[in-house]
Design goal:
- The protein has about 140 residues and is α/β, with parallel strands linked by helices.
- The chain has one domain: Rossmann fold.
- About 45% of the residues lie in helices and about 15% in strands.
- The protein has 4 helices and 6 strands; from the N terminus they run ββααββαββα.
- InterPro entries: Flavoprotein-like_sf.
Length: about 140
Amino acid sequence: MFGSATYMGNVAAGFQTFAERTGQRCALGTWRDKVAAGFVNSGAKSGDKLTALVSLAVFAAQHHMHWVNLGLGPGWNSAAGSEHDLNRLGFWLGAGSQTDVDADPEQVHPADLRTCEHLGHRVAVVTRQLIAGRVAGQATSAA
C-alpha cells in the first residue's frame, strides 16, 4: 500500500524521494507481480487527489505490480447520503481522505479512515485470490 499527502496536485516530496530511490528494485523486478494500492490525503475536499493517485498507480505499474482499485460506489452524492458514508469524497482508483489544513494531521475524518480500512481489506482479498490462482495454475501445469 502506497500513501502520500497531496501537495500541489501530486504526491508529497517525501514519497517522490522514496520513489526515486527504487530504481534498482524496478530494474531487478523486485516487486513484479506484487499487489499494490494507494491512498492520499489533502486539505481540500478534492485537492487534486486524483492526480496523486494516478502518480501512485503509474509508479506501481512501472514496478510491474497489480493495482487494486477501491471497489466502492460513490459515497455522499445524494440527499440521502452523508459525510459518514464510505468513499464520501468519491474516488475509485484508490482511497482519498481530507483533513482540514489547520487540524491535527492525525485527525482524519472517521469515514475516510473506514474507507482506507476497506481498501486494505480489499487488497488482502485480492492478494489471496491471486495466490490461489497461481497455486491452481501451478497444479494444472504440473499435471
